[in-house]
Specification:
The chain is of the alpha/beta class and about 325 residues long. The protein folds into 2 domains: about 70 residues, no CATH class; about 210 residues, Hexapeptide repeat proteins (UDP N-Acetylglucosamine Acyltransferase, domain 1, 3 Solenoid). Helices cover about 10% and strands about 30% of the residues.
């Protein structure tokens, strides 16, 4: 260490041409001579010892030192006297030997660990908007040309394919993301699989069991749980898709809800390929919507719908003449 103050010094025999000099003992700061205080090789406090001999050596320790304490480090001299080899090992970085005695020290070591992870990602070719603002709390595996914006958290095992981009403030937990997919800001993905060239978010939530195929769009304030979306299907706004199987090229309008829970059990909604679901639609499960169906906006579907039909609820609209809108008094 550049400044070894406070640490016990490792004292060695004079150095020869072939060796650094064997360890003779460890001297604590308060017991060290001026020459020993000049030594910069310090003891971190980590000792590996044979158990049987250690018991004997500990029994011989004395506290005739400046602090009146029994030093564990004195067993080094006992080991040498017993003919046991004493070897040293130097860490690659000082932080490897730092202890944790407070929440502050724990947070400092966590930041060091996260920076090491960030540096490794950078070396592997990942683009990080700010290496100081990423948290990897598990295993993050990245393909080529991956870009990650600030304040993203990765938990469990997360796999990002080639050319994936992750926007700011996203949380990914046990997720696999296909090549070329874009995850926009503030999206949460958990136990999820997303195919290639998909667009997720901003503000999207993919819950456990969500499986999205290639080219799927899940937009702002859309929640998907235990559901599959086929190739090219889209749910771009304000939608809940739970316990559902959605086919390919399906358009889910804003405000659509799969009503999957009857108060006791979950039921499944099945929507086949090429269906157009108008805005503000409720699908009361269990229900199946056939291929190519168009569902008018504001419709409640509680019966199966045959393929290639228009589904709507009968509605009456009235326009009254002479109506005066209320006016707020100043």
């Amino acid at each position: 260490m550049g400044d070894p103050t406070g640490y016990g010094r490792i004292v060695r025999e004079p150095q020869s041409e072939s060796s650094r000099g064997r360890v003779t003992h460890i001297v604590e700061q308060k017991d060290a001579s001026p020459a020993e205080l000049a030594i910069t090789e310090i003891n971190t406090g980590i000792i590996v010892s044979p158990t049987a001999q250690l018991g004997t050596w500990l029994a011989t320790l004395k506290n005739d030192n400046a602090q009146g304490e029994y030093y564990l480090t004195d067993v080094v001299e006992r080991a040498i006297a017993s003919g046991v080899a004493v070897l040293t090992s130097a860490p690659d970085d000082v932080w490897e030997t730092l202890g944790v005695n407070s929440k502050t020290q724990l947070a400092e070591l966590e930041r060091i660990q996260q920076r090491n992870v960030a540096d490794a990602l950078l070396v592997d070719g990942v683009t990080l908007a700010d290496p100081a603002r990423i948290d990897v709390r598990g295993e993050l595996i990245c393909g080529s040309d991956v870009a990650i914006d600030v304040n993203c958290v990765f938990e469990g095992r997360v796999v990002l394919g080639d050319d994936v981009s992750v926007g700011p403030n996203c949380v990914l937990r046990d997720a696999t993301i296909g090549a070329g997919t874009r995850i926009d800001a503030f999206s949460h993905l958990e136990q999820t699989t997303v195919g290639a060239a998909a667009v997720i978010g901003p503000y999207a939530r993919l819950r456990p069991g969500a499986q999205l195929a290639d080219g799927v769009h899940v937009g702002n304030f859309v929640e998907v749980k235990n559901a599959t979306l086929g190739v090219g299907s889209k749910a771009n706004h304000l939608t809940y898709i739970g316990d559902a199987d959605i086919g390919a090229r399906v358009n889910i309008g804003a405000g659509t809800i799969t009503c999957n829970y009857d108060g006791a059990h979950k039921h499944r909604t099945i929507i086949e390929d090429d269906v157009f679901v108008g805005s503000d639609t409720q699908l009361v499960a269990p229900v199946r919507v056939g291929r190519g169906v168009t569902i008018a906006a504001g419709t409640t579907i509680w019966k199966d719908v045959p393929a290639e039909t228009l589904a709507l609820n009968e509605k009456t609209q009235i326009a009254k003449t002479g109506y005066l809108r209320p006016v707020k008094k100043k």
